[in-house]
Specification:
The protein has 162 residues and is mostly beta strands. It has two domains: 8-36 and 96-158, Nucleic acid-binding proteins (OB fold (Dihydrolipoamide Acetyltransferase, E2P), Beta Barrel); 39-92, Rubrerythrin, domain 2 (Single Sheet). Helix content is 0%, strand content 45%. The protein contains no helices and nine strands. It has strands at residues 8-9, 22-32, 36-46, 52-56, 82-84, 90-100, 113-118, 129-140, 147-158. It has a five-stranded mixed barrel with strand order 2-6-7-9-8. The structure holds zinc ion. Residues 46, 48-49, 51, 70, 72, 75, 77 line the site of zinc ion (ZN).
Length: 162
């Protein structure tokens, strides 16, 4: 298979050098979490004047971003309070999966490479062999400064089993 050289092929070898670079990994889905809705943009209503305010969200496990102030210039609110409006907010699909090397011995420990699938890329199942292209990002571990490399997928292809 010929692939554009702009994609770096890796597995368990990603370092800070690869941050934000285009990467490509192949392997078997070792673990797949259920597809879940992810908040894309949140709609809020100002409790004082009723103005609707749309706030784009960070995605994934980011905290809910709320408006800082009312965007209505005539609003009399000094201590603004906003109500989240779920039915007016925008959600899309989100799934976390872990890829294991194709030739990995069954007893090897470790979860493998974490992959984030969004929108129409979701729906892969454990045991499927795939090729994933995407961008390498780092996900902080808890509230620490340490991070694990994750691949934000832009493309996923099923590979034929032998
Ligand atoms: Zn207001």
């Amino acid at each position: 298979m010929k692939e554009p050289s702009s994609f770096i092929l890796g597995f368990d070898t990603f370092t800070t050098y690869h941050h934000n670079k285009n990467v490509m990994v192949t392997g078997m889905i070792g673990k797949a979490k259920p597809v879940t809705p992810e908040l894309q943009s949140a709609m809020f209503r100002c409790e004082m004047c009723g103005k609707l305010i749309n706030v784009p969200q960070g995605g994934g496990k980011c905290s809910l971003l709320r408006p800082e102030c009312c965007t209505n210039k005539n609003c009399k609110s000094t201590k603004p309070s906003f109500t989240f409006m779920q039915e007016r907010s925008k959600f899309s699909n989100y799934q976390e999966v872990w890829l294991k090397p194709m030739d990995e011995p069954r007893l090897r420990l470790g979860q493998g490479q974490k992959i984030i699938l969004k929108k129409d890329l979701v729906g892969v199942k454990e045991g499927e062999s795939v090729l994933v292209k995407g961008k390498l990002g780092f996900e902080l571990i808890g509230k620490t400064n340490l991070a694990i490399p994750i691949v934000l997928a832009s493309e996923i292809q099923q590979l034929d089993k032998d």
